[in-house]
What does this fold into?
Amino acid sequence: MELLESPWFFRMVEQHGKTPAQRLIAVFSITETWMTAPGIRDRILASQAPSYLLYNCSELKAFLTNIAVSARASNPASLVNQLVILLQGAIAEEIRNPEARAIGEAGKAARAIIDKACPSKRNMLRLSVGGMAAAALITAIGLHPAVRAQWSVAPTQPMSHIVLASAARPAASYNPDSVEAVLALQEQIAKGVCPAPQLLALPQGQVTAYMNVIHFRTPDDPVADRENIRAFLAWFERTRSSECYQPPSNGHTTVAWVAG
Amino acid sequence: MATQMREYILGVASELFATRGINATSVDTIVAEAGVAKVTLYKYFKSKEQLILEYLRQYDDRLWKKLTERMTAKDSSSSDKLLTLVNAVMDWIADPEFKGFAFTNATVEFPLDENLVHQASIEFAQSLRNTLGRIAEESGIKNPDRIALQLSLVIEGAAITERISPGSGAVENAKEMARTLIEAAR
It folds into this structure.
């Protein structure tokens, strides 16, 4: 059961579904898949797993609360408490009686509970369009020459986002600096000054956030994206920035290649 | 006198089964705790297994007596009946004396299908789900088996949580969840 608090499990959940609500439901389908893996049931029975209480798993609950906040649950803590109680009961029944498909059924129950706890889908859509990336675009267009150049090529299609964004969400609620930083970095990478990030080695969430910024896409989950961008920039600074090579401004290169 | 002694021994054994676990409680412990001779115990119960089965049956009787009281006390409409039942179960769980459903604990302690205790405890657990299903059907819910399973999972989760971490507030969350699920099932 410790698996439900492992980075592997968290990453699996993050990769599932387009919306935070879908990710919360994915907690159940991933657990169900995991429970059908050979030997897992016996291992849980052999360990003292029945006394392993999800309700007291602070890491799991913190992880789920983050998603619940992104899903705009009216009371994220209460939603998460409900979901872990349901999951606990479902796992117990699944161990006792696998034919009942208890976890699958709990997933269906979870959907109803999440629907009740979160605003309607139409609201979600409007709010997510007004999310961070759209707000970021407004600032970016105003500030960044590279972006302005790109926008002049195909400016028509995402315009509606911008109009909605300004109405739905104040630009101050995200961090334009980190979006700026990613775009500046992207320019350096494109010029060959800095090495490209190893996208395969990065957590999925960070890759998505990074790609959203450089392709000017509206994120599904602006709050998570904001965090991911911050984490991505910190990672780049820590591991890759030392490989950036700034050419001297006088036009000469400091390294002379001498033909042997 | 005979029945009183029988009830007394069963009461002591039940308390030990609930607090220490069934397997962890030996007949020696029971007679020592009760202060009776071993032969006295065997006069009323021919084996430990019989004692366990009596304990489960009595627990089930008490639970259903309580639930039936609640169901009939309020002259609630048929549509509220399901919620009344779930809330009554939740209040049973919220009792500070609650140590897990006896039948659930017994299934964990006796995992083998052919075991008599296992069979009895499965039957008791099933009767709760069957009743949930029957009342759901009476109140016109389209898929009564499904809501019965969903509610029993909520009950199970609340019971585990409240047993291990008493006063956690799990019962309140579970009640809200049950209300949501019943509404969604209509």
